[in-house]
């Protein structure tokens, strides 16, 4: 699909460029040809308006730039004399053939066989036909055609190369989104497959009369556990969809972020204290941000939950919130197995879980992905750093 989209993009782009090149080069050729023709006709009319030039063209003024000659006729149409210093007018066959090809009904015309343009000019005593050499005009136009063709081919090839690069650049986000969508479907299918298999197996065992009531109760508990997991998975996927559809931005208000973070810590403090992982907070007051309080609370809960799961007993969990210029910086630290640089990036991707996470709980790896999307919708930044056996999660928001 992506390949077809790139080809379609290139074809559409090159169609417009080709049309533009043809139109531009065609107009250049047309107007150049017309200008040369008009200049030549104006020159002949200038000659016709000056009787001295009709009889003595051997020393033309500056505005006469092309060779020309004149044929003079009486009122009966008989050739009286010729004038011109550029052509051999003693050749009667040439004159006779020239007159045959000169239209008597057209004031101005072109004789291609001799590369001449003629202009009929009646005078009080006679009729005059002025012939002007247009071989240089024809040569100029032919050279212009060749130049335009060369420029057109070079331009077409250049624009084609640029279009290919632009197509790759323009389609790249679509390509990434398409790959992520395929990966998302594969991961979701994989994650759903296991609980569905467990539910199906335990449901079949429930119908087996060979098992006692205690065993059947265990099968029912297994089904309930897997159903709960699937419910959490589907809820997480729906939450991600809602976030991506721009629901958060339409519900943003001013939020007292300091109070919100304090509120989030209250449920966790006794649990962490009992597990010998005391929560140590340092929260500045009067920090306000623009956002959705419900979703911001969800992000803090996700980070607190992760810290409580993966921090080793006997270590504090420092949580800070402070002003950072026109922004505020939130951080929470857990002491435990350090994450690699690659893991610090990947843990925010959907369904990604470290080996430790898989062993610790039965989550699907959607929590941090949801947190990332929520903070992104708030025009903020969330990231993780790992050092000295400590994993620190940061959130940066505009105040």
Task: Give the total of beta strands.
Answer: 12
End-to-end gap: 43 Å
Radius of gyration: 44 Å
Basic shape: elongated
- CATH level 1 class label of the largest domain: Alpha Beta
CATH fold name of the largest domain, please? Answer: Heat Shock Protein 90
Instruction: Write the CATH architecture name of the largest domain.
Output: 2-Layer Sandwich
Fraction in helix = 55-70%
Count of individual domains: 2
* CATH superfamily (homologous) name of the largest domain: Histidine kinase-like ATPase, C-terminal domain
Largest sheet: 5 strands, antiparallel
Proportion of β residues? 15-25%
The number of helical segments is 11
pLDDT averaged residue by residue: 82
- What is the structural class? alpha+beta
Strand order of the largest sheet: 2-1-5-4-3
Elements, N to C (H/E): HHEEHEEEHHEHHEEHEEHHHEE
Topology of helices and strands:
Elements: H1 2-48, H2 51-55, E1 68-73, E2 79-83, H3 92-100, E3 108-111, E4 116-122, E5 127-133, H4 135-206, H5 213-244, E6 253-256, H6 257-265, H7 268-274, E7 279-283, E8 288-291, H8 293-310, E9 317-324, E10 327-335, H9 341-346, H10 355-360, H11 367-377, E11 381-387, E12 390-398
Parallel strand pairs: 7-9
Antiparallel strand pairs: 1-2, 1-5, 3-4, 4-5, 6-8, 9-10, 10-12, 11-12
Helix pairs in contact: 1-4, 4-5, 5-11, 6-8, 8-11
């Amino acid at each position: 699909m992506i390949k077809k989209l790139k080809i379609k993009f290139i074809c559409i782009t090159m169609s417009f460029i080709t049309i533009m090149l043809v139109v531009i080069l065609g107009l250049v050729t047309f107007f150049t040809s017309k200008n040369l023709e008009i200049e030549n006709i104006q020159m002949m009319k200038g000659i016709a308006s000056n009787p001295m030039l009709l009889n003595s063209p051997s020393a033309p003024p500056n505005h006469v730039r092309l060779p020309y000659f004149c044929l003079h006729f009486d009122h009966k149409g008989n050739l009286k004399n010729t004038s011109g210093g550029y052509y051999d007018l003693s050749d009667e066959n040439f004159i006779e053939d020239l007159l045959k090809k000169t239209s008597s009904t057209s004031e101005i015309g072109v004789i291609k066989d001799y590369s001449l343009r003629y202009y009929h000019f009646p005078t009080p005593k006679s009729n005059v036909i002025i012939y002007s050499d247009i071989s240089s005009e024809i040569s100029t136009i032919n050279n212009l055609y060749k130049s335009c063709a060369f420029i057109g081919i070079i331009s077409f090839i250049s624009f084609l190369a640029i279009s290919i690069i632009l197509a790759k650049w323009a389609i790249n986000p679509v390509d990434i989104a398409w790959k992520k969508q395929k990966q998302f479907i594969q991961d979701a299918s994989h994650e759903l497959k296991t609980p569905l298999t467990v539910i199906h197996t335990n449901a079949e065992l429930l119908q087996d009369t060979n098992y006692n009531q205690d065993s059947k109760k265990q099968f029912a508990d297994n089904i309930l556990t897997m159903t709960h997991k699937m419910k959490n998975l589907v809820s997480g996927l729906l939450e991600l969809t809602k976030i991506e559809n721009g629901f958060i931005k339409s519900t943003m208000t001013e939020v007292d972020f300091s109070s919100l973070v304090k509120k989030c810590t209250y449920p966790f403090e006794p649990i962490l204290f009992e597990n010998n992982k005391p929560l140590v907070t340092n929260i500045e007051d009067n920090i306000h941000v623009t956002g959705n309080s419900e979703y911001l609370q969800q992000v803090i809960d996700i980070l607190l939950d992760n810290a409580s799961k993966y921090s080793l007993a006997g270590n504090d969990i420092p949580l800070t919130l402070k002003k950072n210029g026109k922004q505020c910086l939130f951080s929470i630290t857990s002491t435990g197995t350090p994450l690699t640089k690659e893991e610090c990036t990947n843990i925010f991707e959907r369904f990604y879980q470290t080996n430790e996470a898989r062993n610790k709980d039965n989550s699907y790896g959607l929590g941090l992905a949801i947190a990332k999307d929520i903070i992104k919708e708030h025009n903020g930044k969330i990231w993780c750093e790992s050092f000295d056996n400590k994993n620190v999660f940061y959130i940066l928001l505009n105040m």
